[in-house]
Structures are given as structure tokens and as C-alpha cells.
Model the fold of this input.
Amino acid sequence: MRHTLPLAPQFYVTAPQSCPYLEGRLERKLFTALQGEQAEDLNDALSKQGFRRSQNVLYRPSCSACNACLSARIRVADFKPSKSQKRTAKKNDHLARRTRAPWATEEQYDLFRRYLDARHADGGMADMDVFEFAAMIEETPVKSRVIEYSARSEDRKTRDLVAVCLTDVLDDGLSMVYSFYDPDRRSDSLGTFIILDHIRLAQEAGLPYVYLGYWVAGSPKMDYKAKFAALEVYSGGRWTPLGDPEEFEDQSHPLTHDPIAEQVAQISLPGARPVNKD
Done:
């Protein structure tokens, strides 16, 4: 009888390019393909180690002279909304939530284009066409959902799509892969509301974490994530409470970075014994 051993994922590093968050810095990513029967196990395992999913790729910042990008997640059981967040939740409690399979629609893309044109016209996704958008939503080898939020139209006969979030369901939480919303509803703080609603969804499902993507120390674009209570970041090979955000802003000395080979050797893969970080 022939036995085939599962192939260990191969890791690669992107070429340095301009950082979209911090002026004058270069970004580099460590990444691996997400495919095959173990895709969900790999996504679960690497998400716990600071990786994020983009279609069928898992990646983590691996910049040679900067540690500002840190994966962030909220401890659901310890989260308590601020007064401002309570107001945001109340302001948007009329929105209807619909959870769908990861399938792109024209209505989603129209909202996505309006969002990019208003908020990220010079960003890396600014030129994304409808086919690339569909790939972002639909090319997922793991358990993913599209969560839509809609409001009554002015004539109250139909509902208008106002926010969307592509979400992965991990074994320990919900991972918010990408969200976008109606840019004309700036005063409604829809970005904050989507996070608050995901915390509620995780509570209902008994999941301990909501993964928010990367928090970037020193980037004004990412300040909003630090406003959530019970936030922790993946730093130095472990999850740690954020505490004072300013303490993470001076992490740019080259000697604080392990070589790529050592970084890969420290990654715990599904079925393997956890790497001792101490």
C-alpha cells in the first residue's frame, strides 16, 4: 500500500516596495499558498501567528527594518464598548444584516467602487475591476461568508446596500478579511459598526476572538483600531495586550528582526508541536 505524506507549505518573500501606511519605508511580505485539503487547518494555525488571508494566499509582514505592522484581534469576552461605540451601535441598529455565501454581485461592486473612489483613490486596489473584485470575494479555499448590511430606501419600498464585509470563520474567531461601506454615510461610523457587529456575532457563536487585520503603529489610518477595548497584537511571537500604542511606535532597529529562515523555522504548522517562544 502506498502512503503519501502531506507536503509542507513553502514560504516565499516578496520584493521590497513602498509602504502604503508609513511614508519613506519599504514593505516586504512573507507568504505561502493556501490550497488543498488542509487549507482550513493552515488558515486557522497561521492566523494565530499573525498571518492574514488574501484569496488563496496567507501573508505576514516581514520588513527588514520595521515592525510597525502588527496583527490585531479583540478578546470578545473582555470587550466593553465605549460611550462613542454605544452611540454608533444605536445609530445603526436599524440596519438589516444578511449573511451570504462568498458570491460577488453587481450591487456589491458598485458600493465597493464608490468606497474606493472616495476613501482610497490612490491605494493599491484603486484600479480593481469587476473580475478582480469577484476573485477577491469568491476565491476562498476556507469557510468564508459575505455579510451585508442594508437600510430602507427613501421610498421605504426597497433596501439599499450600505456596507459589506468578507469574513472568514476560524476555529477560534471571525477574521474580517475586507470591509467597505457607503462613503456618503460618514457620520454613521459604519466601519466601527461592522466591527461591533462582528463582536456580537462572535459572542453568539461562542468564538473568543475577532481578528481585525493589521494595526500599524504610527499610522493615522489605523488609529481607530486602537480605540477598541480588549485589543491585543501579535508581537515577538506572542499575543500581547496593546496597552499604550506609543510603546509600539519605535520598533525599527534592524537587529530586532530574525532572518527569514529563522522566521519560517519558528512557524507552527497544523499537526506539528507548537514552537516554544520563550
The chain has a mean pLDDT of 89. The radius of gyration is 19 Å. Helices lie at 39-47, 83-91, 106-119, 130-138, 190-205, 260-265.
